[in-house]
Specification:
With 281 residues, the chain is of the alpha+beta class. It is built from six helices and 17 strands. Helix 2 crosses helix 6 and helix 3 runs antiparallel to helix 5. The longest helix is centred in the first third of the chain and has 15 residues. It starts with 5 loop residues before the first strand and ends with a strand.
Length: 281
């Protein structure tokens, strides 16, 4: 596996036309941060993951969006896990991220590789009222549009996200926002994405995730937000645990994604998905 190659995979999909594309770079040692940032900007995906060393089940991993380093990224982790499983063997890889160890178990199910990451311990914080007001204004939503069953919350499982549940799917599908305004609000609040949710059933949720801080209008699949949302549902006792839910994302963008989220009674949240190749440089 050449250390100058960026492998390109789409995560949380079985089709190259779906999911969230990611770059995965593997080498003997991580490049300097400025070089990783340059490579990520050249790739243009919402995230490129960089892993070292080239062999073994213990790796260091870092994540770069086109504009900045991100503490944790789920879809690039799934992409990296499938790449490692296909090229170096099935099993559990221990990935040392900047926020802690994230185990990734990869295996072949009927010819399709799946990877499952276990997040760091989830956390939540209340949303400052002024931040909620400003973000709602930036996306053109009102307080009365929000789902009373899904209270606004800051949620974390490696990266911080703002969860906003909406009453109507049509409102989620019509999402439009002021890019630079939202970007600055999210930078100031150290948010990675907005996790905008519509609940279809007890176990099926639809999500859209603006990602302006990475220089990306919207993410078609956000594994870190899915893990944070799983922790949120458990900790606000919105569901009985253990429970497995499905998050459908990317459909409004034409890149449908399916994110399986297993919510155990305690501990990290397990996020599972497939990944497929887009081609290699």
């Amino acid at each position: 596996m050449g250390s100058n190659t960026v492998h390109r995979l789409a995560a949380f999909t079985h089709s190259p036309n779906g999911g969230n594309p990611a770059g995965v770079w593997i080498g003997s040692a991580l490049p300097e941060p400025a070089i990783m940032q340059r490579i990520a900007a050249e790739e243009g995906f919402s995230e490129t993951a960089f892993l070292a060393p080239e062999t073994g089940f213990d790796r260091t991993i870092r994540y770069y969006s086109p504009q900045r380093e991100i503490p944790f990224c789920g879809h690039a982790t799934i992409a990296a896990g499938v790449l490692l499983g296909r090229s170096q063997g099935q099993g559990t890889y221990q990935l040392s991220t900047s926020v802690g160890i994230v185990p990734v178990t990869v295996g072949d199910r009927a010819g399709q590789y799946h990877a499952s990451l276990t997040s760091v311990e989830p956390q939540q914080k209340p949303v400052p009222p002024e931040l909620l007001t400003a973000i709602l204004a930036a996306i053109g939503w009102e307080l009365e549009d929000l789902d009373p069953q899904l209270s606004p919350m800051l949620a974390y499982a490696g990266s911080w996200h703002l969860i906003l549940g909406v009453k109507e799917l049509a409102q989620l599908n019509a999402l439009n926002y002021e890019f630079e305004t939202l970007q600055q609000l999210m930078l100031n609040a150290e948010l990675i994405t907005l996790q905008l949710i519509w609940q279809e059933s007890e176990t099926i949720f639809h999500s859209r995730n603006p990602f302006p801080i990475g220089g990306v209008v919207e993410d078609p699949a956000t594994g870190s937000a899915a893990a944070a949302f799983g922790g949120y549902l458990r900790d606000v006792q919105q569901i009985s645990v253990p429970k497995t839910i499905l998050i459908r994302q990317g459909e409004a963008m034409g890149r449908p994604s399916q994110i399986q989220v297993e919510i155990p009674a305690i501990g990290g949240i397990v996020v599972t998905g497939q990944a497929v190749w887009l081609g290699e440089q």
